[in-house]
């Protein structure tokens, strides 16, 4: 039985660096990092309600005010507006799916947390949707493939209800420097073979265990006001 947990898949995928030494260094940096003073847990918890239309624009504005420091609210609100426009444009309807803790080797599990399964009324596509809300420090291409492939093999392979895993990305555009919304699906992110996915997650788990041996995991603390030196998460 697994005895430890990796960071959730959107962060665990970012630890994979292609080889053991670089992945180990990434795990060490992750464990040593200064924890951000605020997070977007509230948005991840609410994403299925946003897509289902159960959370109004006004409620979202109040949530941003309640959970986001003043100097980051403009960026956060822009991301929310992009998300709402995307939902209206394609008529997404569906239901939430509970997160799952999936074994990845070396007595570790990783949490997979999609928004839910939704169908686009305009496109007639049924998808498993996940959200990437960071402005900066989003996963790189091969790291995104780990995330999408993990979602696919865990949630999308029921022959009675096949789903297409799509990650909704709200990060900064390299071309314009501004927020954008992208659908990262099969055309952009081809699936990894299951064996390759398992190897990559095994590497992360192995390196994370080594990193924990020299850097005990920091306890979760109370959120503090965001300092000017912290990078913006959303």
What does it look like?
The protein is an alpha/beta fold. The protein has a domain at 4-38 and 94-214. Helices cover 41% and strands 17% of the residues. It has helices spanning 9-15, 20-32, 41-51, 57-67, 73-90, 141-155, 194-214; strands at 4-5, 92-96, 100-105, 108-112, 116-120, 125-132, 164-169, 182-184. The strands form 2 sheets. Strands 2-5-6-7-8 form a 5-stranded mixed beta sheet, with helices on both faces. It has a 3-stranded mixed beta sheet with strand order 1-4-3. β6, α6 (141-155) and β7 (164-169) form a beta-alpha-beta unit. α1 (9-15) crosses α6 and α6 (141-155) crosses α7 (194-214). The radius of gyration is 18 Å and the shape is globular. The model is unreliable at 221-234 (pLDDT under 50).
H/E series, N to C? EHHHHHEEEEEHEEH
Structural class: alpha/beta
Oligomer: single chain
Estimate what percentage of residues fall within beta strands. 15-25%
Number of helices: 7
Distance between the termini: 35 Å
Kindly summarize this structure in a few lines:
This protein has 234 residues and is α/β, with parallel strands linked by helices.
List keywords for this structure.
234 residues, alpha/beta, 5-stranded mixed beta sheet, 3-stranded mixed beta sheet, 7 helices, 8 strands, globular, disordered C terminus
């Amino acid at each position: 039985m697994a005895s430890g947990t990796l960071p959730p898949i959107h962060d665990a995928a970012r630890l994979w660096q292609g080889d053991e030494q670089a992945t180990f260094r990434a795990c060490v940096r992750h464990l040593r990092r200064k924890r951000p003073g605020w997070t977007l847990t509230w948005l991840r918890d609410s994403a299925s309600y946003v897509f289902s239309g159960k959370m109004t624009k006004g409620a979202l504005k109040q949530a941003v005010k309640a959970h986001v420091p003043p100097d980051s609210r403009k960026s956060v609100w822009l991301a929310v507006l992009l998300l709402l426009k995307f939902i209206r444009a394609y008529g997404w309807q569906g239901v939430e799916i509970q997160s799952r803790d999936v074994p990845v080797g070396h007595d570790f599990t990783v949490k997979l947390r999609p928004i839910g399964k939704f169908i686009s009324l305009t496109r007639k596509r049924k998808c498993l949707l996940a959200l990437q809300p960071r402005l900066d420090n989003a996963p790189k291409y091969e790291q995104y493939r780990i995330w999408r492939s993990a979602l696919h093999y865990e949630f999308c392979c029921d022959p009675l209800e096949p789903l297409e895993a799509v990650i909704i990305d709200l990060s900064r555009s390299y071309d314009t420097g501004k927020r954008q919304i992208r659908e990262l699906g099969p055309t952009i992110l081809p699936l990894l073979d299951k064996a390759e996915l398992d190897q990559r997650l095994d590497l992360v788990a192995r390196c994370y265990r080594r990193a924990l041996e020299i850097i005990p995991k920091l306890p979760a603390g109370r959120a503090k006001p965001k300092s000017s030196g912290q990078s913006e998460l959303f």
